[in-house]
């Protein structure tokens, strides 16, 4: 026997489809941010290298690292949307947890390399 498809089932399926598209779009934005950031960083490298012979390599690494950090945030958001809304099975949630753990480790590593300190370490202002 075929089960009748209710309007609620159709609405939920439409909602899942829309959220899948939203998650994929956010992933696309993340990839665009990484690629765009790398291109902008490369353009800045070329301009800085032409103007002066300073520490352009360090600035280039910082710019690329910041682009990767921002892109990773978008990629994590896309994964969360697709996993929680579209297919919330225990296996998908565990895979999402592993992905978020790996990307968080990458983000912390990049942050530490770029700024030389962990994100929760603030500079204490010195009284003059």
Low-confidence stretches: none
User: Approximately how much helix is present in the residues?
Assistant: over 70%
* General shape: elongated
Q: Helices and strands: which structural class?
A: mainly alpha
Order of helices and strands: HHH
Strand content: under 5%
Radius of gyration, in angstroms, nearest whole number: 21 Å
Number of helices: 3
Distance between the amino and carboxyl termini: 81 Å
| Number of separate strands | 0
Average residue-wise pLDDT = 82
- Biggest sheet record: none
Number of domains: 1
Summarize the structure.
This protein is mostly helical. 80% of the residues lie in helices and 0% in strands.
Structure description:
With 128 residues, the chain is mostly helical. It has one domain (16-115). Helices cover 80% and strands 0% of the residues. It is built from three helices and no strands. The radius of gyration is 21 Å and the shape is elongated.
Reconstruct the topology from this structure.
Blueprint: H1 7-51, H2 56-86, H3 90-115
Keywords:
single chain; 128 residues; mainly alpha; elongated
């Amino acid at each position: 026997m075929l089960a009748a498809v209710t309007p609620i089932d159709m609405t939920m399926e439409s909602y899942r489809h829309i959220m899948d598209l939203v998650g994929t779009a956010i992933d696309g934005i993340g990839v665009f941010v990484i690629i765009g950031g790398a291109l902008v960083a490369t353009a800045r490298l070329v301009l800085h290298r032409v103007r002066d012979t300073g520490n352009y390599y360090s600035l280039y690494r910082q710019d690329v690292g910041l682009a990767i950090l921002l892109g990773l945030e978008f990629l994590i958001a896309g994964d969360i949307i697709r996993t929680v809304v579209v297919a919330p099975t225990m296996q998908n949630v565990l895979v999402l947890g592993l992905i978020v753990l790996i990307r968080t480790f990458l983000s912390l590593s990049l942050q530490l390399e770029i700024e030389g300190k962990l994100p929760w370490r603030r500079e204490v202002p010195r009284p003059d």
